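Ops channel
N.P.: pipeline sanity check, posting one input/output pair.
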């Protein structure tokens, strides 16, 4: 197969552009590779560069010469130090490698020259249109402010998000003995230092703080030298009395760059031009180098440039998206650092280490068992007990572990009556070991159903059927609690069963809908009637009557459904509540009816049994409920006696734009827990027991609710215990199942081969 791209132009002489040039020239020495860099060879605006073992492995296989040169200059260390309120906690086993950015560029310059790459320093690149027309391939590695990206913005469709912290890159002339995070609580607010060695006698130091803290401290009016001197004083102990130095350093705000597309014709984006990831996970150079490896490999594997660029984008975009999600989680953790300052010291350190969700409880335990065990002891885990198997008390109910089977609509009832399917479905999950099993949303009236297959608690027959299920759980799965979620569909009712067409109106047999305001959910949805005062009273009484039946049916916990765009949620969101009476307008007024319903339910629900509330903490839509609103909503329900807030998001308006990802809803639960001071249940793409342990131990949630994992595996919690070698009081294997309490043996799995392997 012929090598593609004979004449290659590269804009930008950072590590990504240089490494792409070296790889492409090495793959085919006959290529004409020209790189334009507007700065001088020695100009660089950073200090140290951190590379992961994974990235180094890719470099080693693709270009042993570059790898050997890097190896000579690497500074390596294993520890992370976290210093907060005068206490330092150290976690080991992390395996970092760093070197000076200037030295990295020198190595790549030398390699490019040896291979015959034409590098044009101090030279502005010609117009991208010209380079595209005169070359087979144009690689835009021209950074976060990419001119090429801007030139073709209508094709690449960039999205640039500016964040809330200011930071400055500095250095000091000694080597930290660990990756150091230090927190300073000043009269102006919280500031943090990120520091790491990159040479035997030098370390990178990044000082970061929220914009309002930066202004309050006067950094917005300080000269560069004054800023450096102030930072030196604030972090004098961490710096061992040494000065900080600058390299044309200025305060800046981090920008996250995302592009809908990475290529246009024969033009392709690489590195920061295509994407950025916050420095707190140290991945900018790493991503750029990995981009170069993948692009070179795709050009070798594909028959022409267009297909190579499509393959490159298809391969790299999911990897980068995952990294950007982790980077954003890390960035936001530091933006909201003050939220966590009062945690116990070791828990704070654990929270910081696991902030991006890439480091988890399990792999931190493998890296540094002593540190992780100390965090567990401080948290209250008995010896040998994973955090998820510690008990949790809500009012008079003690849950034996922190796992909740999340409410999942089954749409399998007849006339609102749960039948054999529900007995088997909920019974199986109760036998599966979770501390709490929740029903689907149980409707408080016939008109309050979502579909004809929804369950209810508006008749005695329905209550009797539910009692059959609660009796089974209490008898056959002792120690498992079962909770009921009460709700009313509001404007999202009278629709088909999910698998027949989710949220689509019934073809016939529709019933009239009611809501806070007469707004259809979707353009083809039925328009609901706005509820009158009298109807509000009727519905409040329906909730009260259903709660009374739920108590008679033997449920251990009741949850009021105020999320996902159903009736009570429709009152809370400004997008769905357009009322001008006492039940609409300000958040206080929008809360009025949901709180009236809550009070009515609490009035008939047994005092010793917990009552929780599920909310949508954001509508994922402009003008909707915000994270700040969600804290106030949680505070209001807690003030009325809610025992916990079940923190979900979205599904309120059809035009929502959720930011999906692993554990993507947990930051909202974390914020509510710390700012509203109420226990929370976290939900949303929590898929592994490692996630549960990590979230619980970090103090981001009290309970974790999982839905799809329990559809995939009804005995998910039992299997989580088996996989962790746990057999304590937080789990009970049903006697007939104990023979399955050991994890079955599995076959061999081989590690993936290197992405790009070339000869020596």
């Amino acid at each position: 197969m012929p090598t593609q791209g004979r004449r290659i132009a590269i804009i930008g002489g950072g590590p990504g552009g240089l490494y792409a040039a070296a790889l492409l020239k090495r793959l085919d020495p006959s290529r004409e590779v020209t790189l334009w860099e507007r700065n001088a060879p020695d100009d660089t605006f950073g200090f140290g560069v951190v590379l992961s073992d994974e990235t180094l492995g890719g470099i080693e296989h693709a270009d042993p010469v570059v790898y050997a040169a890097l190896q000579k200059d690497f500074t390596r260390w294993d520890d992370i130090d976290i210093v907060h309120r005068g206490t330092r906690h150290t976690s080991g086993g992390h395996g970092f490698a760093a070197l000076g950015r200037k030295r990295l560029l020198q190595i790549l310059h030398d390699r490019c020259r040896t291979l015959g790459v034409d590098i044009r320093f101090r030279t502005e690149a010609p117009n991208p249109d010209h380079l595209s027309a005169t070359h087979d391939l144009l690689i835009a590695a021209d950074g976060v402010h990419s001119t090429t990206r801007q030139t073709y913005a209508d094709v690449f469709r960039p999205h640039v998000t500016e964040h809330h912290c200011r930071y400055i890159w500095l250095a000091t002339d000694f080597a930290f003995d660990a990756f150091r995070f230090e927190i300073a609580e000043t009269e102006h607010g919280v500031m943090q230092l990120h520091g790491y060695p990159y040479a035997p006698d030098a370390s990178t130091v990044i000082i970061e703080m929220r914009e309002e803290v930066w202004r309050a401290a006067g950094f917005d009016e300080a000269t560069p030298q004054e800023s450096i001197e102030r930072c030196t004083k604030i972090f004098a102990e961490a710096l061992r009395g040494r000065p900080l130095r600058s390299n044309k350093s200025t305060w800046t705000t981090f920008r996250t760059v995302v592009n809908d597309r990475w290529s246009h014709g024969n033009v392709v984006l690489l590195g920061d031009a295509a994407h950025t990831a916050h420095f707190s996970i140290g991945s900018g150079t790493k991503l750029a180098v990995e981009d170069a490896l993948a692009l070179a490999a795709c050009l070798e594997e594909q028959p022409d440039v267009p297909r190579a660029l499509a393959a490159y984008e298809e391969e790299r975009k999911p990897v980068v998206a995952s990294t950007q999600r982790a980077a954003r989680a890390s960035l936001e953790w530091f933006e909201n650092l003050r939220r966590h300052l009062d945690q116990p010291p070791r828990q704070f350190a654990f929270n910081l280490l696991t902030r991006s969700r890439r480091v988890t409880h399990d792999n931190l335990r493998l890296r540094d068992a002593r540190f992780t065990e100390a965090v567990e002891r401080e948290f209250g885990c008995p010896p040998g007990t994973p955090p998820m198997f510690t008990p949790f008390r809500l009012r008079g109910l003690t849950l034996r572990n922190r796992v909740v089977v999340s409410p999942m609509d089954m749409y399998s009832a007849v006339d609102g009556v749960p039948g054999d399917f529900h007995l088997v479905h909920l019974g199986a999950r109760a036998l599966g070991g979770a501390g709490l099993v929740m029903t689907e949303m149980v409707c408080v009236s016939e008109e309050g159903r979502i579909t004809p297959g929804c369950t209810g608690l508006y008749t005695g027959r329905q209550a009797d059927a539910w009692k059959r299920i609660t009796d089974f759980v209490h008898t056959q799965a002792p120690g498992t609690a079962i909770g009921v979620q009460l709700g009313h569909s509001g404007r999202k009712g009278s629709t088909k069963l999910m698998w027949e067409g989710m949220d689509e109106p019934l073809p016939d047999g529709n019933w009239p809908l009611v809501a806070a305001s007469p707004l259809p959910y979707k353009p083809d949805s039925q328009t609901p009637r706005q509820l009158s005062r009298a109807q509000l009273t009727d519905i409040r009484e329906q909730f009260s009557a259903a709660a009374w039946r739920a108590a008679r049916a033997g449920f251990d916990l009741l949850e009021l459904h105020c999320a996902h765009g159903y009736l009570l949620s429709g009152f809370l969101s400004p997008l769905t509540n357009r009322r001008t009476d006492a039940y609409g307008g300000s958040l206080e007024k929008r809360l009025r009816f949901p709180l009236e319903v809550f009070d009515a339910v609490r009035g008939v629900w047994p005092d010793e049994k917990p009552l929780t509330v599920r909310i949508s903490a954001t509508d994922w839509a402009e003008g909707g409920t915000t994270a700040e609103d969600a804290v106030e909503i949680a505070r209001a329900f807690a003030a009325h006696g809610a025992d916990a807030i079940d923190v979900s998001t979205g599904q309120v308006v059809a035009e929502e734009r959720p930011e999906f990802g692993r554990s993507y809803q947990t930051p909202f639960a974390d914020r509510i827990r710390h700012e509203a001071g109420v226990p929370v249940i976290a939900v949303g793409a929590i898929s592994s027991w490692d996630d549960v342990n990590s979230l619980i131990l970090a103090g981001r949630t009290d309970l974790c609710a999982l839905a799809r994992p329990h559809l995939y595996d009804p005995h998910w919690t039992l299997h989580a215990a088996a996989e962790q070698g746990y057999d304590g009081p937080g789990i009970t294997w049903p006697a007939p199942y104990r023979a399955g309490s050991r994890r079955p043996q599995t076959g061999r799995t081989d590690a993936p081969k290197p992405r790009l392997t070339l000869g020596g």
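N.P.: looks fine end to end. The longest strand covers residues 158-172.
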